[in-house]
Amino acid sequence: VDEQLGRDLMSFGTPILVLGDPGQLPPISGGGFFTEHEPDILLTEIHRQARDNPIIRLALDVREGREFMRGDYGAAQVIGKEDVTQELVLKADQVLVGTNRTRRRYNQRLRELKGFNADYPQAGDKLVCLRNDPAKGLLNGSLWKVMTSSRETVKPGINLLVSPEEDDPDRGVAKIKLLKAAFEDPDADIPWQQKKRFDDFDYGYALTVHKAQGSQWNEIVLFDESWAFKETRQRWLYTAITRAAERLTIVR
Known about the structure:
Blueprint: H1 3-10, H2 48-51, H3 54-63, E1 71-72, E2 76-79, H4 86-91, E3 94-97, H5 100-113, E4 126-129, E5 143-149, E6 157-164, E7 174-179, H6 180-184, H7 192-195, E8 201-203, E9 206-208, H8 209-212, E10 217-223, H9 233-241, E11 244-251
Parallel strand pairs: 2-11, 3-9, 3-10, 10-11
Antiparallel strand pairs: 1-2, 4-5, 4-8, 5-6, 6-7
Helix pairs in contact: 3-9
C-alpha cells in the first residue's frame, strides 16, 4: 500500500487493522504507507509446535542472524549445486531465484526439460502475469497455465487461452494476447506505445523471490542468490524460506 492509496483509505475514517511481517522484503520501489511506521503491537513469541518445524526453524535462524550449514533437516534440506538433479527441480511446485538473469536462464532450461521447444508459450506452459488488468481478472504476480495457443502467423501478437494455476473462484479462464517480440528477445527495450497494446506475461517456472512475495507453495526449490542483495540479504533469504509450506530445498 503506497502513500496515495494509504491516504485514500484513511480518508474514510474507518478503523484499519494492518498485519505484516517486518522481516519480509520491502517494496521494490518506495515504502509501505503503513508498514514504515513502528507497530502498535509486535508479536515475537514462536509456539513450540511451530519452532519444531524445520522450515520455520531455518527462517528463524536467518532472521536472528545465525548461519546454517548444508544438511538434511527433515522437511528442509540445504544442498550444493552439484547435488541438484532434474527430478528435484521438476517435481517442485515452484523454483525461486534472486536475479532476473538467473530466472530467464532457468525458465529456458525448465521448459526444455518439460519438452517445450517453441519460441512462444504453448499449451501446458506455465506463465506469470506481469501487469494488472482488472477487466480480464489479471493480477500482477498471478500464475497461469496455457490451455490453448493460436497458430503462429506473421502478425506481432499471439492469442492464448489461460486458466489460473490454482483453483480460484474469483478468477476464471482468460483470453490474452502476447507480443511475440517480448519472447524472442526478453532483454529488448520495447516502446511502451507498442507494449501497452498487449498483455504482459513471462514464463513462470522460476520466479524471483520479489515476485513470489505474498505467495506460498507446498514444495519449493530455492537457489540462494542472497549475495546479490547486500543490505537486504537477510530479509531476502527469510522471505524466500517462508514461501515453502511443506518441503524446502535450498541450493547454495
